[in-house]
Amino acid sequence: MTGRPRLRLFRLAGPLVVAGAVFVSCGGPGPVSITGAPTPAVGDRAACAALIAALPDSLGAGMDRREVKPPVANAAAYGAKPDAVLTCGATGVAASYQPTTVLSAIDEVGWFTEALGDRTRYSTPTRTPQVVLTLPADQQAFEVLVALAPSVREHTRPTAGTEG
Q1: What is the C-alpha separation between 2 and 4, in angstroms, rounded?
Q2: Which of 4, 38, 59, 162 could be cross-linked to 126 through a Cys-Cys bond (beta carbons 3.0 to 4.6 Å apart)?
Q3: 3-state class of 48 per DSSP?
Q4: What does the alpha-carbon distance between residue 121 and residue 100 come to, in Å, rounded to a whole number?
Q5: DSSP label at 44?
Q6: What is the spatial distance between Cα 146 and Cα 65, in angstroms, rounded to a whole number?
Q7: What is the pLDDT of residues 11-67, one digit of tens each?
């Protein structure tokens, strides 16, 4: 299986975080502002909007969904700071990703993990449109990824030549 990403069962529930070009403001309980979210390709916009609409209201304890103002059709935020930011429609893949990279498979969704300072970035380089999630470094990722998997699986598709 040369050149095809391999998926492995995600067993590590350790702290993972992600940072990227997405910026969030408002640490209180009110709406949050997300800037820097990617602009999905025209053919991916409907899938991204459907994914965001289908996301759960909570990703676990202390990780309730936040209102985003102004609304961003391809982004969602969860938690107090907010702790988790999910975007849909990123183009390209992380510089450290290689087609032979072993991905963490959660409910048939392969996630690529990158530690970026005080955050961890999880992306789905073998699915389109691509989903990117950022979490604080001390956040347990497993339950969050399990909560997201059904919506991601339903509203994205494997890229050609991949399994997830």
Answers
A1: 6
A2: 162
A3: helix
A4: 19
A5: G
A6: 15
A7: 322 222 233 345 455 455 689 999 889 999 999 999 999 999 999 999 998 899 999
